């Protein structure tokens, strides 16, 4: 009955009209939209903002409430778009609302599939023992925890421009967790360092962050011009990293008792992952297709390789073969194969199921929530106020703070939609601030949210918030460095 009620060109019954009249004067709303006036002054718009703020309060309180962050934002997304649908239908703009949400869903699907492929690769490398070996190499090399802190940060900074900040942060966080063991303090601070380094590294490459990709696709900044941001990005990480490093004890991590052995095909998976990243870059750079196509193609190749592992394991699961492995005969990687438990066949979908689904669904909620607020006109209103009244420099600095609170993708999208008249130095500045600004809060970037899932209970919103002051210092240091390089 309700379905018919809302789908018959929104012919409101008397009861529904009375209910809606409490929230919004429909005739006035329809008149405003038809004249091109936004919906930011409507009661439903205010209600949407209230819902979003309440949902974010629950996200921030996740550690205390033990309520997964995806749950409140998914509900909020549905409620906000219900309000958008009511508003646009009453104004005769239902088709426009459909186009807006379709665009938001497309953004989510591309991000979702990209992350799912990346997480599956990482889980497979972990299952094959790659990260255990890396941990063993770091520990047996005699590095202290402080040196490991710097090494993982440096790798995150240099790898992020190629593999994107999210994938890099997930990879290095796994290494830190493996190295840190029971040292909660080291893991927590190192995760903050990795998120800052990965976001900073992603700011000077079109492939390092979604926002830089958006600016590059818009044709505003050319590929080679992003390199101008290298030194400001480096300063952003080094200032924050230096401050945090003093809290890292200069001691050796616990020795690894078990021998780290890479399972059969482990290095092939690493090579396949690198090839997948190259495909993702090439799909976009040369064919002008979404990078997610390259990631999903690589995931398909990984699935085909997993079929070979499945056939191989059927042989190893033969009782007589397994007995010879346990006795130390046969194959060079017998130590790894002998640890197989039960008679289950190798299944790549087990690694896919281990993806951080709370994180993935969280992105759905955030993208649709912010997209819904944008449909009411709030993003455009804020952008117009910032660039029209405050000036480009102040506005671009504020963009970084907004990226930490909301998300850099919709913020940058709003800026691109506004197309403010700015110099090339200012466009590079907003690219920098949107990229590194999200580091101020753990929920301000895809890298931070993903690492929260990877190091659940250790790297949290509040553990990151303790170092926000240091990250802010690095943020302004990078802006000053950019000023010295370009003069804006």
Indicate the topology:
Blueprint: H1 2-7, H2 14-23, H3 26-34, H4 43-60, H5 62-65, H6 70-90, H7 94-127, H8 130-140, H9 145-163, H10 165-180, H11 184-202, H12 210-217, H13 230-245, H14 266-285, H15 291-316, H16 319-326, H17 334-337, H18 348-353, H19 357-376, H20 378-390, H21 392-405, H22 408-418, H23 424-437, H24 446-454, H25 461-465, H26 468-486
Mean pLDDT: 79
Low-confidence stretches: 1-37, 329-336, 338-343
The string of secondary-structure elements, in order, is: HHHHHHHHHHHHHHHHHHHHHHHHHH
How many helices?
26
Helix content: over 70%
- Which structural class should the secondary elements be placed in? mainly alpha
Largest sheet: none
| Gross geometry | globular
Structure explained in plain terms:
Helix content is about 75%, strand content about 0%. By secondary structure, it is mainly α. The protein has a domain at about 105-355. It is globular, with a radius of gyration of 25 Å. The termini are far apart.
Task: Explain briefly what this protein structure is.
This protein is mostly helical and 488 residues long. Helices cover 74% and strands 0% of the residues. It is globular and about 65 Å long.
């Amino acid at each position: 009955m309700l379905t018919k009620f809302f789908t018959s060109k929104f012919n409101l019954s008397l009861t529904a009209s009375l209910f809606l009249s409490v929230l919004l004067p429909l005739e006035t709303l329809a008149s405003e939209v038809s004249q091109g006036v936004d919906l930011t002054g409507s009661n439903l718009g205010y209600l949407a903002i209230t819902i979003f703020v309440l949902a974010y309060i629950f996200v921030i309180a996740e550690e205390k409430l033990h309520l997964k962050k995806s749950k409140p934002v998914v509900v909020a997304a549905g409620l906000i778009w219900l309000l958008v649908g009511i508003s646009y239908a009453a104004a005769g703009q239902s088709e426009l609302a459909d186009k807006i949400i379709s665009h938001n869903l497309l953004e989510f699907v591309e991000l979702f599939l990209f992350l799912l492929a990346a997480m599956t690769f990482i889980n497979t490398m972990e299952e094959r023992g790659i990260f255990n070996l890396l941990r063993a190499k770091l520990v047996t090399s005699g590095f202290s925890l402080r040196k490991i802190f710097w090494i993982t940060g440096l790798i995150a900074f240099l790898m992020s421009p190629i593999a994107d900040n999210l994938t890099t942060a997930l990879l290095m966080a796994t290494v830190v967790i493996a190295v840190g063991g029971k040292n909660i303090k080291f893991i927590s601070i190192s995760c903050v360092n990795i998120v800052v380094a990965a976001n900073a590294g992603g700011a000077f490459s079109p492939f390092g962050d979604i926002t830089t990709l958006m600016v590059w696709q818009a044709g505003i900044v050319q590929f080679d011009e992003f390199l101008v941001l290298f030194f400001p990005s480096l300063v952003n990480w080094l200032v924050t990293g230096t401050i945090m490093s003093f809290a890292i004890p200069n001691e050796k991590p616990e020795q690894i008792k078990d021998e780290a052995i890479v399972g059969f095909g482990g290095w092939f998976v690493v090579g396949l992952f690198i090839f997948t990243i190259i495909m993702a870059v090439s799909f976009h750079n040369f064919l002008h297709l979404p990078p997610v196509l390259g990631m999903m193609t690589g995931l398909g190749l990984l699935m085909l390789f997993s079929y070979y592992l499945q056939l191989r394991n059927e042989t190893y699961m033969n009782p007589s073969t397994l007995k010879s492995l346990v006795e130390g005969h046969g194959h060079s990687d017998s130590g790894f194969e002998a640890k197989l438990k039960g008679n289950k066949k190798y299944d790549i979908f087990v690694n896919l199921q281990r993806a951080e689904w709370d994180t993935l669904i969280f992105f759905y909620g955030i993208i649709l929530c912010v997209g819904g607020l944008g449909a009411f006109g709030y993003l455009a209103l804020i952008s117009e106020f910032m660039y029209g009244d405050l000036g480009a420099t102040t506005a671009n600095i504020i963009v970084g703070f907004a990226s930490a609170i909301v998300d850099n993708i919709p913020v940058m999208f709003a800026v691109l939609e506004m197309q403010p008249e700015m110099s090339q130095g200012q466009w590079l500045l907003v690219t920098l601030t949107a990229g590194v600004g999200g580091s101020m809060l753990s929920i301000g970037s895809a890298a931070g949210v993903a690492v929260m899932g990877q190091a659940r209970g250790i790297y949290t919103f509040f553990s990151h918030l303790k170092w926000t002051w240091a990250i802010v210092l690095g943020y302004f240091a990078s802006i000053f460095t950019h000023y010295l390089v370009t003069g804006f």
